[in-house]
Amino acid sequence: MVEVLLSERAYQSHGHRFAEIDAELRLVRVRGDGSLVVDDAELELDQAAPEVAWLTAEALYDGVAARFFDVVRACPTVRWVHSPAAGTDLPVYRGVDWTRVRLTSAHVNAIPIAEYVIGGVLEHFQGWRDWHDAQARTAWEYHEFREVWNTTWLVIGVGAIGSAVAERVRAFGAHVIGVRRHPRGDEPVDEMIDPSDLLAAAPRADVVVISAPGTSETHHLVDDAFLRAMKTDSVIVNIARGSIIDEDALARALDRGVPALAILDTFATEPLPPDHAFWKHPRVVVTPHSSNGGTARHLRAVDAFLDNLRRYLRGEDLHGLVDPAAIKPRVRKEPAGRDQQ
Q1: What is the distance between the alpha carbons of residues 282 and 276, in angstroms, rounded to a whole number?
Q2: What is the domain-level CATH number for residue 265?
Q3: Calpha distance 243→260 (Å, rounded)
Q4: 58 and 126 fall within a common domain
Q5: Does 304 have pLDDT greater than 90?
Q6: Are 222 and 198 in contact, with CB atoms under 8 Å apart?
Q7: Residue 301 sits in which domain range?
Q8: Which of 237, 176, 188 is closest to 209 using CA atoms?
Q9: Is residue 171 very low, low, confident or very high in pLDDT (cuts 50, 70, 90)?
């Protein structure tokens, strides 16, 4: 009998679907108070023997994740953890032997994040703020606007999220330059460059999208030199980690007028302090770590895990396996919203 560890909320919402897969599965629930329950009976930690651990967005939002991973670390029976997060730096990952335990991610947030990126750029290109202002004045004012067609997008980090952005903007007729240290060769881009060539590509980009993981290698990857090389009418969008942009350098660049706009969903300090200059800067759009907030992602997440569970029980390869070498938990905890990517 295979035991599956999951949160109480996940059980209440989706527990009935496990019977479709295997009626003999034993579901170990982590309640909000940290207690472990099977059916109606409470378990001590040494009585639990989960083989599969399903970390859901609910567990992160409810604060259950810490207790969840206490169980994962304490139980040598755990062989596989499925996570909703695209990021491999969640603090709760610390202390797990990822050479023994497999980690998978469904990357269900790539769709809403890609739509967020494109929506923000379109609103700027098309001048929706001017239309809103005109409507408030009951003024019938026509203006032309910039098209995405024939623009160049520099996508820094072409994983699931960067690929989703690239696929969609290419459908608009944009040219996409991807940046990836170890490309697979199947990324949906027109060009692929190494991070060492990033500075040379900056003057070509109409839109820069940051979708790379936050690591020591990407820390302040977007620095003063990069920002000075950008086009005057360019847009930069960060939906990755705040550490990737040197925020002081960005503030200076925005004051100089380049780039024309920064759409920021992630910051070095979160929540963004109320007195931070970005809140009121006319060239900045601040959103509160919410680019992943598409409601359909929850359904995709459940379906992806259950499909992988079927594969696991049949002894087949799992989808979305994460390279253990890429799992580098950070010490500082950021809001759960970003970790859902």
Answers
A1: 13
A2: 3.40.50.720
A3: 21
A4: no
A5: yes
A6: no
A7: 3-108+296-339
A8: 237
A9: very high
